Sequence to fold (538 residues):
Amino acid sequence: MDVNHAIVNALRAEGVEYLFGFPSNPLFDTGAAEDAGIRTIITRQERTAVHMADAVGRLTSGEEIASFACQHGPGTENSFGGIAQAFGESAPLVAIPAGYDAAKTDTDPKFNSLVNYQQISKSCEQLTDPGAVDETMRRAFSAARNGRPRPAVVEVPKDVFYEEVPEFDYSPSSSNRSGSDPAVVERVADVLVQADQPVIYAGQGVHYAKGWDALRDLAETLEAPVATSLNGKSAFPEDHPLSLGAASKSEPGQLSHFMREADVLFGVGCSFTETAYGLTFPDPEETTIVHSTLDPTDIDKDLTSEHSLVGDARLTLEALVESVGDRVADDRGRFDEVVAEIEEVREEWLAEWLPKLTTDETPINPYRVIHELTNVVDAEDAIITHDAGNPRDFLAPFWESTEPLSYIGWGKTTQLGYGLGLAMGAKLVHPEKLCINLWGDGAIGMTGMDFETAARENIPILTIHLNNYEMASYDTPFSGDFAAVGEALGGYGERVEDPEEIAPALERAIEKTKEGTPALLEIITAKETDLSRPDLQE
Fold:
């Protein structure tokens, strides 16, 4: 057995179902992965392949790890952005890029993944010893699966792929969880119960821990409202009366209102990273900050916390539910008051935005697109994501996610063109769902050719292009008939210019996806600049 086939055996033992990437890499070129029953998907560019692997890890809560492979040199260089995005968004995957021949791997100016990927991966190794395949692959998968999920990289010099493995007996990695200190849990329970206006802020760690039920139990026991990060959106059902929605560059009015009023902010499964696309931090001198996270390096990184818990989000939440339950009666008597306040502020906020959401103006206001999308699509049967910039900012406040992992939120490094690969990966994980991505001119220009991958690989997603002929607020005129491009690439394409045609066009496109054809709707929109970003300091 050579190294190539040993790696494939390791992937199968780890439960890998998909290998995404771009030739030339022996894992693709020899047919070894396909022969072992792993579905190989070749994309038009390396970055999209990484994005698809990213989605598989996120939408299975890290239980399934997808792999990525590519050519040495240009392939590894092109994939750098995708790995960096997955690192920033805490998405698990295992990348196996080829490297130059072992004798030349450190020769300038050859691109060396071991040197260059260390800052954007959780672990990064170069496999040069054929006898070390088993331990090297096990370390990579263990790193991706345990603790904070992030990419692991194993570079294999291209000549090493064909060397014989002296002995190979692979045991797959394990996945482990750790709970928070029980004594600190008791102290935090006291803080939460004594708070007059507590707010819970849930991050992506709740998804990875599958802590959705425990989060809901804690909120209902405390009778406390819940906000989420953009990555954590859908961790708490947004049709629940205690939901405040997701914090982002654009967010619901009730979220900012309750953040201003909170005397205790309990963040769970979040990093509290300071970013333009996340929570506007409250003043820690006026608000007691309690931070629960799996990664201890997040504690006091950007936001100083008075109390901190380190451990798996679900285990921590379950422990808090028990401790808080011991301290409160079945009914604290404030549920109706809190819900009424949420609804009052929400209605005021929506009233401000209703004119944009329902306007008949042309070019079409993008908020009208969001409004029609929410009316046509059953959120319970869909998984939706967005691209950077305006598509994210238009969608996030107004789309209500009701099921866990039905929204793939992101925004820390804001790489254009990310959403298409996420939607395709989502469709592979959940073929029964309608998988949607919303993007603009910049994003479709970056990765739009990979719509052909969706057609070629029978991945029937719905992609909606908000075409205002420019990128965000930059005065850079773009052009093109992208509906025609969608048709030319093997899918269904339709251009929409009349607001009354948005809903019928959506219905036609959705029907095409049910028939197995990916659909691209190009909607000609106005250059909208208003965003819902209530000032926390008001």
Observations:
- Residues 3-162 form a domain with the Rossmann fold fold (CATH 3.40.50.970).
- The CA atoms of residues 341 and 519 lie 41 Å apart.
- The chain has three domains: 3-162, 182-343, 359-524.
